[in-house]
Design a protein that fits this description.
The complex is a heterotrimer of chains A (305), B (367) and C (496).
Chain A: H1 13-17, H2 26-36, H3 38-61, H4 96-131, H5 133-147, H6 151-162, H7 166-175, H8 178-193, H9 196-203, H10 208-244, H11 256-263, H12 271-298
Helix pairs in contact in A: 2-12, 3-4, 3-12, 4-5, 4-7, 4-8, 4-10, 4-12, 6-7, 8-10, 10-11, 10-12, 11-12
Chain B: E1 6-19, E2 22-35, E3 39-43, H1 50-57, E4 65-74, E5 77-78, H2 85-88, E6 96-99, H3 103-106, H4 113-125, H5 129-142, H6 148-151, H7 161-173, E7 179-183, H8 191-208, E8 211-216, H9 219-225, E9 228-233, E10 236-242, H10 243-248, H11 253-260, E11 310-313, E12 316-318, H12 339-349, H13 356-366
Parallel strand pairs in B: 3-8, 3-9, 6-7, 7-8
Antiparallel strand pairs in B: 1-2, 1-4, 4-5, 9-10, 10-12, 11-12
Helix pairs in contact in B: 4-5, 7-8, 12-13
Chain C: H1 2-30, H2 41-46, H3 50-63, E1 67-71, H4 72-80, H5 85-91, H6 96-107, E2 111-114, E3 121-126, H7 129-138, E4 141-143, E5 159-164, E6 170-175, E7 181-185, E8 192-194, E9 197-199, H8 213-218, E10 221-224, E11 227-233, E12 236-239, E13 241-248, H9 254-259, E14 264-269, E15 271-273, H10 276-304, H11 309-323, H12 326-340, H13 347-350, H14 356-385, H15 388-395, H16 400-418, H17 420-428, H18 432-438, H19 443-452, H20 456-484
Antiparallel strand pairs in C: 1-3, 2-3, 4-9, 5-6, 6-7, 7-8, 10-15, 11-12, 13-14
Helix pairs in contact in C: 1-7, 1-20, 4-5, 10-11, 10-14, 10-17, 11-14, 12-14, 12-18, 14-16, 15-16, 16-20, 17-20, 18-19
């Protein structure tokens, strides 16, 4: 008695070669992970709004810290909150709403410009640094010397020598600021460079340029993004602090730090003057930080579960 | 044969992992018994679930994995029901101990060797520190550390790999556990040290009378140490039996494939056997025999119905339709024909990493 | 080991040398030198007298080391002494001496010019920044010895001797040295003090004009206060003079002649408030201890209860403290503390003696720093908890508590300990923002203050102090690592 179910069959070997795993796309997973948190999405929207207003509003208001048109009109001073003056007016008759947005614009510009410059120089130098042993020998000494001096000290001394001003501040913050990014990238490049798949790839004769662009840069992308997103709030914070201490931006450039310093004097009578810049500042940096952190987490493939 | 005194009994065990919102069944209804004093080897390729099975015995599954069904009975205790880490404390180390693959990373680098042994003794045996130190030095000597008293206060980085694995074994055995799980205990070690470690475990087993479970994919180790062997594939045990039965009278095509790919069995000038394909995805239920797509002896029924365990001898079972009486005549693969003679030859020639005298004699005498 | 230490020491010196030379060159060549008069009150009085104005400027520049300066007055005084007819004639622009002065100075390569009103000659020579830097280094360490004082007085004995001080304690004293007391004991930490080796970081100007940089930050501040003397000096039983600091003074005025028996009459005063360094250190150290005592356990707690509400709460706290600029939350704390707890919102309101003055600043320092300790501790704990030895420890049957406290913690604390020396040492450097917000007269405030009034030597001096401390603390951190991590040795690898 022959059961037909017990006949031998030939199996297609290729079928068994397929590995089945849930379909996976890096960028899809990143965006899925990123948008999963409601709070982040809200903060992202908020950030977009803040950036737009900060870029547009100062153009419309024409606020200039060197020019206070209402300075001789006592009735304009310390006006309360109204529709026309959403944050009231300050001691020289300026609308605080205008001043806050002008200051926010400065802060955002400083943050973005410094982060961009530091990251681009840092990534380029760091990549070369990580690959070349000869450069590493020199650079590590330079790094050791400069990193032994506190960053805030370097910035203040540089600002002191260059004088106060927007571009001077940017220069002071960038002159050595890229070093830490470069060092970070260098270490990452060194780690990835010696990973087996890269050794294998270079053993197989992959040109260096291709190795960097195909194997290493994509991996670094998430690391770089994280770095940028953390550097922006840090740079904003540095600017605000220095301006608060009176050694950052000069009086011709609107700055939240200087505002906080000035308005702190009116604190007892007109606390809203003080809270306006402080809360705006906090809102900007928290949003940037949280967005950056979420982006960093989302771009780490290990979180894509 | 040793007495059939069951100390651990697993029934219909299921372990599920949650991966990217999907369920992965790593262990699919496994049942087996462990007998007191024996050495059981669990073999299978990577991903077959052998490590997961062992982790579920000590509650050490990764955080996204759970025992989703079945039972693990150990001295009247139901291990499958234990969820909290606290409940496991009296089991781990005290009754079931584990030796991991890599001795280089198993020890805490910033604490002395001695303190790491003493700690476990004080925890489970509740003895004083002084007494524990004395016992620890004795134990270190027993696992072959010379000048143990001087080396008691050394740090792991001052020990060689083999010595560290000896310490790991000492720690595992510090509280006289009933079961010792060895998860690839020699993979990370030099070939010369491997045999020493295997012998050490075997010698200690004879002295202490504990039960050992080896997890390995090295059939050389299996031949060397095991009393019984269980072959795992895709989250299931597909064949188990005494070591000779598995090596010489294996019935499952997957076991044949494993044995055929032993490099020691290769003939000069002949292409070594290699098994094509990859194990099936465990993300969804498998219909029929999991091995069917890679099986040279696949039958229609393999794709339709899951095979039951067929009893070949009272100690030897295989989960394949090939054992069904309705199967037409077929020839087993050439490579495993006369495996007996080959093995004897190899072991007497001393080709296999392992200990020649003991195992080869037992092969001869038993088969 | 010794070779490593020597090598490392030399490299550290080199680092400091390079940093200082760069800073020196930057500060003294890029910053316009007229800026040093930015907030000098004297200069305004001189505006109407162009000769005196110019003379004053050159004298200050000479003091600050920009140039060497010599006038015809100095030249004539050397020839004839002052206040006589010859001298007055000599000063005239058409005198033969003036011609000699001009030609000899021009020969030496000095620049010669004439004052606008009097027409008297003056000359100066620029000192290059590099040379200044070298000079600065050459004069950095000053060692006192009996031949130090250049005195015309023949009666001055030159000797070091052991004597009794005005408190009837033994002291190593000196005649002919710069300082009267070389080594002395008192009841203040560290109980034994010395005046032999001193760091000369330059002279502060225009604030704290004439004082040495190091003196500015280390001497007590505030009102003068009298202290009791055991052995009355000149019949006085209490005095606000700190006799231990007395230095040699060549010409004494009438009052000094009355008060002092010898020429060591240039003394510091005892004042009510601690020095800048001390204020910063007190606050920094208390907050540092609090930071570790609060931050580490919280970090461990968060790691143990990863993902639960305690951890989430902590993470939000960390996010807030990291994201909000220090300025914003410090001002907020000041507001809350001032309004609802009646604490002084400015340090000088109650002053350095009242402990309440310290509460808000310390709180401000602690809250931010705690967040970062928590963050790192949590991260290190979680990193370590994924290591194999933890798996093995678990397999040994240790409880989670034991695994965390005996295994993971021991490993996770290592990188945290590395930062402790740096943290302690940088207490001295003060907190830039906190001291700024509360108006605390400490080290953190002195740097921006010096910058906003163009106090060059202060900026350079402070840079030197901070850089040196920073390098020292890195070394101490590395050394401490070898004490708690048996795998690490100080060897000829890496480091700076």
């Amino acid at each position: 008695m022959q059961d037909s179910r017990f006949e031998f069959v030939t199996v297609d070997a290729r079928v068994a070669e397929e590995i089945e795993a849930p379909s996976y796309s890096y960028w899809q997973s990143v965006s899925k992970q990123f948008f999963k948190k409601k709070s982040t999405v809200i903060l992202l929207l908020l950030m977009v709004v803040i950036i737009l207003v900060a870029l547009i509003q100062p153009e419309l208001s024409g606020y200039d810290p060197m020019n206070s048109p209402n300075i001789n009109r006592p009735e304009m001073r310390f006006r309360g909150i109204s529709l026309q003056y959403p944050y009231g007016t300050d001691g020289v008759g300026n609308s605080v709403w205008d001043v806050v947005w002008a200051g926010t614009r400065t802060s955002l510009l400083v943050g973005f410009i410094v982060a961009c410059i530091n990251t681009s120089i840092g990534v380029v130098v760091g990549a070369v640094w990580g690959f070349s042993k000869a450069i590493d020998k020199v650079m590590i000494e330079v790094f050791n010397i400069i990193s032994s001096v506190p960053y805030i000290l370097i910035v203040t001394v540089l600002l002191y020598t260059f004088g106060r001003g927007f571009w001077q501040l940017i220069l002071a913050m960038c002159l050595t600021g890229w070093l830490s990014t470069a060092y970070f990238i260098r270490t990452q490049v060194m780690i990835i460079r010696d990973r087996e798949y890269n050794l294998a790839s270079s053993c197989l004769g992959t040109p260096m340029l291709r190795l960097v662009s195909r194997n290493i840069l994509p991996y670094l992308l998430s690391v770089i993004m994280t770095n940028v997103s953390l550097e922006i709030p840090a740079a904003i914070s540095t600017e605000v602090t220095l301006s608060f201490l009176g050694i950052g931006l000069n009086v011709a450039v609107p700055s939240l730090g200087r505002m906080i310093n000035q308005y702190a004097n009116y604190f007892n009578g007109y606390p809203h003057l003080f809270w306006a810049p402080v809360l705006t500042l906090a809102l900007v940096t928290i949003s940037l930080y949280v967005i950056g952190q979420t982006l960093a987490d989302a771009s780490d493939p290990r979180t894509h579960r | 044969m040793k007495g059939r005194d069951t100390i651990l009994s697993i029934r219909d065990l299921e372990v599920t992992f949650k991966v990217r919102d999907r369920q992965l069944k790593a262990i699919r209804r496994i049942s087996f018994d462990l007998y007191r004093g024996e050495t059981l080897a669990i073999v299978g390729e990577s991903g077959s679930g052998k490590s997961v099975l062992m982790k579920s015995l000590t509650g050490m599954l990764e955080s996204n994995g759970t025992v989703s069904g079945g039972s693990i009975r150990f001295f009247g205790e139901e291990l499958a029901q234990k969820k909290k880490p606290r409940e496991w404390e009296s089991i781990r180390g005290a009754k079931i101990a584990t030796v991991f693959q890599d001795p280089m990373t198993s020890l805490n680098p910033v604490r002395t060797i001695g303190s790491q042994i003493v700690e476990v003794m004080m925890k489970h045996q509740r003895c004083s520190r002084k007494r524990a130190k004395q016992l620890a030095i004795e134990l270190m000597e027993r696992v072959g550390i010379s000048e143990a008293a001087e080396r008691f206060d050394a740090y792991p980085h001052e020990y060689s790999g083999g010595m560290r694995q000896r310490i790991v074994i000492a720690i595992a055995l510090a509280c006289r556990p009933q079961i010792l799980i060895c998860d690839e205990p020699t993979t990370a070690l030099d070939v010369t040290v491997q045999a020493q470690i295997l012998n050490l475990i075997k010698q200690l087993q004879q002295e202490e009378g504990f039960t050992t479970i080896y997890i390995t994919h090295d059939l050389g180790v299996v031949a060397n140490v095991a009393d019984r062997v269980a072959v795992m594939y895709a989250g299931q045990i597909v064949e188990y039996g005494e070591v000779e039965e598995i090596f010489y009278e294996s019935a499952h095509p997957y076991t044949w494939a494993l044995l055929s790919s032993l490099p020691q069995l290769g003939q000069k000038g002949e292409r070594l056997f290699s098994l094509h394909g990859t194990p099936p995805s465990l993300y969804h239920d498998i219909v029929g025999d999991a091995f069917a797509p890679r099986n040279q002896y696949a039958m229609r029924i393999d794709f339709e119905e899951e095979p039951p365990f067929f009893e070949i001898t009272p100690t030897h079972y295989a989960k394949t339709w090939l054992c069904d009486p309705r199967v037409p005549f077929f020839k087993r693969p050439k490579a495993i024909e006369g495996l007996h003679q080959k093995m004897v030859m190899i072991y007497q020639g001393g080709n296999v990493s392992g200990n020649r005298e003991e195992r080869s004699f037992s092969f001869n005498s038993r088969s | 080991m010794r070779r490593y230490l020597i090598k490392r020491f030399l490299r550290s010196l080199l680092s400091i040398f390079i940093v200082m030379t760069i800073v020196f060159t930057l500060v003294y060549s890029v910053v316009p030198r007229d800026r040093v008069f930015f907030s000098d009150v004297n200069i305004e009085k001189l505006q109407k007298r162009p000769d005196d104005y110019l003379n004053y400027k050159y004298i200050q520049w000479e003091k600050l080391g920009y140039l060497k300066y010599e006038t015809i007055q100095d030249y004539c005084r050397g020839l004839y002494g002052d206040a006589n007819g010859e001298y007055v004639r000599c000063l005239l622009p058409d005198s033969s001496e003036t011609k000699e002065f001009v030609s000899s100075k021009q020969e030496e390569g000095w620049e010669v010019s004439f004052f606008e009103e009097s027409g008297q000659a003056y000359s100066f020579e620029e000192i290059s920044p590099l040379k200044r830097a070298l000079n600065w280094w050459a004069n950095l360490i000053q060692i006192d010895s009996p031949n130090r004082v250049k005195s015309e007085e023949a009666t001055l004995k030159r000797q070091i001797y052991v004597g009794k001080d005005f408190n009837d304690r033994l002291a190593l004293m000196c005649s002919g040295c710069e300082n009267k007391y070389l080594i002395y004991f008192d009841q203040k930490f560290p109980f034994i003090h010395q005046n032999i080796v001193k760091l000369n970081l330059g002279v502060s100007y225009p604030t704290y004009s004439g004082q040495e940089v190091l003196e500015v930050i280390t001497s007590s501040q505030g009102e003068k206060v009298k202290q009791e003397l055991k052995e009355p000096i000149n019949g006085q039983e209490a005095s606000s003079i700190n006799y231990y600091t007395c230095r040699y003074k060549e010409t004494l005025d009438a009052l000094e002649k009355k008060n002092f028996s010898d020429h060591y009459a240039d003394c510091d005063a005892i004042r009510t408030d601690p020095s800048m360094m001390k204020i910063s250190f007190i606050m920094g150290f208390i907050s540092l201890v609090l930071t570790y005592v609060i931050g580490l356990p919280l970090g461990v707690y968060m790691a143990r209860h990863q993902g639960r509400w305690g951890d989430r709460l902590g993470q939000w706290y960390i996010i807030f403290m990291n994201a909000i600029p220090g300025l914003a939350y410090i001002v907020f704390i000041r507001f809350i503390g001032g309004k609802y707890f009646g604490l002084p919102s400015m340090f000088p309101m109650l002053g350095a003696e009242d402990p309440r003055s310290y509460i808000l600043p310390i709180l401000s320092l602690t809250l931010g720093a705690t967040a970062s300790r928590m963050m790192w501790m949590r991260r290190y704990m979680i990193d370590q908890s994924q290591m194999d030895y933890v798996k093995f420890a678990r397999a040994k049957g240790l409880s989670e508590r034991e695994i965390f406290s005996k295994h993971i913690f021991r490993n996770a604390i290592i990188p945290m300990v590395h930062g402790i020396p740096a943290a302690i040492i940088f207490c001295i450097s003060g907190a830039l923002i906190t001291e700024g917000v509360y108006g605390i007269p400490g080290m953190g405030k002195i740097l921006p203050d010096s910058i906003s009034i163009y106090n060059n030597s202060m900026v350079v001096g402070l840079t030197f102090i901070f850089t040196t401390l920073s390098i020292l603390s890195t070394f101490l951190g590395d050394w401490l690592l070898t004490k708690i991590d048996p795998r690490i040795r100080l060897e000829d690898k890496g480091g700076n």
